[in-house]
Write a structure and sequence with these properties.
The complex is a heterodimer of chains A (about 110) and B (about 110).
Chain A: E1 5-7, E2 10-13, E3 19-24, E4 31-38, E5 42-50, E6 53-56, E7 65-71, E8 74-79, E9 88-96, E10 99-104, E11 108-112
Parallel strand pairs in A: 2-11
Antiparallel strand pairs in A: 1-3, 3-8, 4-5, 4-9, 5-6, 7-8, 9-10, 9-11
Chain B: E1 4-7, E2 10-14, E3 19-25, E4 33-37, E5 43-48, E6 52-56, E7 59-64, E8 69-74, E9 83-90, E10 97-99, E11 103-108
Parallel strand pairs in B: 2-11
Antiparallel strand pairs in B: 1-3, 3-8, 4-5, 4-9, 6-7, 7-8, 9-10, 9-11
Classes of the chains: A mainly beta (about 110), B mainly beta (about 110).
């Protein structure tokens, strides 16, 4: 089965450090989402891309978060500097617009201490 | 923007029971997905169901788009069905999908 691959699975870092999370979408999918999940807020949309172009990143704190798709096989989410309130599970999802829905990766569990 | 409401928020059932989970949405949508988040945190795609009815084993889903709701049926529940069930709909024509708060299902052995 095709899958969305996220790395790392777990990350523990100190406050102030840069964190980079990576996502390999399913080959042929033209849409990529980044979500953050916390107990308090549930699943929040941070950013999404279509054909590698950013369509909406209004859910992302702009001063510290950035999302990019350097090529069709890689999406990245960076936090610099990280803060304890960024601790959450970050999910990437990919799909083909309008067809069959979206597939999620296993997530990156981030802990900022 | 569109609102998504799921009910009930929590459900505890004995193994073997049947259950119905509901998703209401405030505006017309052109697609809808149901997901299961298992106790390990993985989000599993159950159904892509913009309208009509689909079945996959013990699970089935029905979306009535004109009345703005979808139902997920689980028959003969097993402990592995435990977890949180989410429905997700597009917020706008760009397919920016948003999630309901989920139904937490706990199946007792």
């Amino acid at each position: 089965d095709a899958r969305v691959t996220q790395t790392p699975r777990h990350k523990v870092t100190e406050m102030g450090q840069e964190v980079t999370m990576r996502c390999q979408p399913i080959l042929g999918h033209n849409t990529v989402f980044w979500y953050r999940q916390t107990m308090m807020q549930g699943l929040e949309l941070l950013a999404y891309f279509r054909n590698r172009a950013p369509l909406d990143d209004s859910g992302m704190p702009k001063d510290r978060f950035s999302a990019e798709m350097p090529d069709a096989t890689l999406a990245t989410l960076k936090i610099q500097p990280s803060e304890p309130r960024d601790s959450a599970v970050y999910f990437c999802a990919s799909g083909q617009q309008g067809r069959y829905g979206y597939t999620f990766g296993s997530g990156t569990r981030l802990t900022v201490v | 923007g569109i609102q998504v409401e799921q009910s009930p928020p929590d459900l505890i059932l004995q193994e073997g029971a049947n259950s119905t989970l509901r998703c209401n949405f405030s505006d017309s949508v052109n697609n809808l997905q149901w997901f299961h988040q298992n106790p390990w945190g993985q989000l599993i795609n159950l159904f892509y169901i913009p309208s009509g009815t689909k079945q996959n084993g013990r699970l089935s889903a029905t979306t009535v788009a004109t009345e703005r709701y979808s139902l997920l049926y689980i028959s003969s529940s097993q402990t592995t069905d435990s977890g949180v069930y989410f429905c997700a709909v597009p917020m706008n024509r760009d397919d920016k999908i948003i999630f309901g708060k989920g139904t937490r299902l706990h199946i007792l052995p």
